[in-house]
Amino acid sequence: RKEVEQDPGPFNVPEGATVAFNCTYSNSASQSFFWYRQDCRKEPKLLMSVYSSGNEDGRFTAQLNRASQYISLLIRDSKLSDSATYLCVVLTPDTGRRALTFGSGTRLQVQP
Amino acid sequence: DGGITQSPKYLFRKEGQNVTLSCEQNLNHDAMYWYRQDPGQGLRLIYYSQIVNDFQKGDIAEGYSVSREKKESFPLTVTSAQKNPTAFYLCASSIRLAGNEQFFGPGTRLTVL
């Protein structure tokens, strides 16, 4: 089982739609969680951190469910510019390395 | 303008040759990382460095080497021992080791001919 699993998509949605992605992680000791956005052939950029209480940033909402070991990202009122790959990232303590583990990403295509 | 630079953007190499990828940051970050990304896959950690003159192997270090002689610089050498080196290589840095936002450079696409 992969440490971090995501549905690769693509999710094809019309402008203005609401779309949600889930990401599951295997290690219950994972401590910190992030969503990164990666445009085609570009570097990843931090979209938002995911807190236990959930957090919202404009049209984006992130949630953490520790019991079921998944995090989610909700995008409301999708824009064409939201088209990208969304990477789920998990920090898991590992003999002091404290390494980030990246999911393979979920591709979103917002259509006019 | 603070950030991370990587050069070159595209690199072609003949089989059997070593090649060094450059990574420089002026963010005053202590920690630096090298990742490799293959099509349809997540980023995999090659090497990381917590501080100057210190570095550790990541998940896929075989066939790669690094140095960290200066805080700003963390070059990666892809040696001829790397069996499948064609990939997108990303350098990143963070204020300290993990747990914080990692800032990425624009990446180098290496193609072995």
List strands and helices in order, with pairings:
The complex is a heterodimer of chains A (112) and B (113).
Chain A: E1 4-6, E2 11-14, E3 19-25, E4 32-38, E5 44-50, E6 55-57, E7 60-65, E8 70-75, E9 84-92, E10 99-102, E11 106-111
Parallel strand pairs in A: 2-11
Antiparallel strand pairs in A: 1-3, 3-8, 4-5, 4-9, 6-7, 7-8, 9-10, 9-11
Chain B: E1 4-7, E2 10-13, E3 19-25, E4 31-37, E5 43-51, E6 54-57, E7 64-66, E8 76-78, E9 87-94, E10 103-104, E11 108-112
Parallel strand pairs in B: 2-11
Antiparallel strand pairs in B: 1-3, 3-8, 4-5, 4-9, 5-6, 7-8, 9-10, 9-11
Q: Care to describe what's here?
A:
The complex is a heterodimer of chains A (112) and B (113). Chain A has 112 residues and is mainly beta. Chain A is built from no helices and eleven strands. The model of chain A has no long low-confidence stretch (mean pLDDT 92). In chain B, the strands form two sheets. In chain B, strands 2, 4, 5, 6, 9, 10 and 11 form a seven-stranded mixed beta sheet that branches. In chain B, strand 4 and strand 5 form a beta hairpin. Chain B is built from no helices and eleven strands. Helices cover 0% and strands 50% of the residues of chain B. Chain B has strands at 4-7, 10-13, 19-25, 31-37, 43-51, 54-57, 64-66, 76-78, 87-94, 103-104, 108-112. The mean pLDDT of chain B is 92. By secondary structure, chain B is mainly β. The interface between A and B is medium-sized, with 23 and 22 residues.
The general outline of chain B is globular
What is the average per-residue confidence, as pLDDT of chain A, rounded to a whole number? 92
Cα distance spanning the termini of chain B: 36 Å
C-alpha Rg of chain A, in Å? Answer: 14 Å
Class derived from helix and strand content of chain B: mainly beta
Oligomer: heterodimer
Number of strands of chain A: 11
SSE sequence of chain B, one letter per element: EEEEEEEEEEE
- The proportion of strand residues of chain A reads over 45%
Number of helices of chain B: 0
Helical segment tally of chain A?
A: 0
Biggest sheet of chain A: strands, sense, closure? 6 strands, mixed
**Contiguous uncertain segments of 5+ residues of chain B:** none
Shape summary of chain A: globular
